[in-house]
Design goal:
By secondary structure, this protein is of the alpha+beta class. Helix content is 50%, strand content 13%. It has helices at residues 20-26, 63-70, 72-82, 92-100, 103-116, 120-134, 140-155, 163-175; strands at 3-6, 10-13, 16-19, 38-42, 46-50, 55-57. A hairpin with a 4-residue loop joins strand 5 and strand 6. 18% of the residues are buried.
Amino acid sequence: MSFRHHPDGLIYINELCLPLLFFQQQEPGYVLPEGATGREYVPNIRHILFDGSSQWADAMPWPEGDGYLAKKAQYQTTFETANTPAPDPQPQYIGLYNELLSPDGLSVFLFVRSLSDQNLPIANAYGDFVSALTTPSPSLPALQSCISNLFAALQGFNQTFSQSQITTMRSLLDRNGFQAISFPLSN
């Protein structure tokens, strides 16, 4: 095992490379002796300090260095955890979008789409809904408004939805946090 403090601000513990600032957060007491710009420590073999133009031996053994080497796995885990980006939260609309593409959801919205061919208010509301849903990051209130507007347009249209379509849409909306939006009841 080896510990190296490179002059470019990196600490190497064997193959593990850590920024000096991160290492000093883990080991606040670690500093190079005055005048040194780097260090190399290999237990029972060498402990060298250097300044770019010369090098000199330091204490052997180096108890702090042995401690740093013993904590390599801890540093690695902490560093990887600190530098692993958190997954993007899945916006609420993703679940709705995925379910609308499922066979049940698709069958209801294809039926709504067919109604939009016959009725301009439904066509406009349906177009707004599809546009909001396919925007890269739609706002939830905008999407809820589009769904409400679409359902309001469907309420005023004399078309019968089957009980299966009503159940499917209510279930789909409820599962995805859209409980306040009521699916048209006209059967």
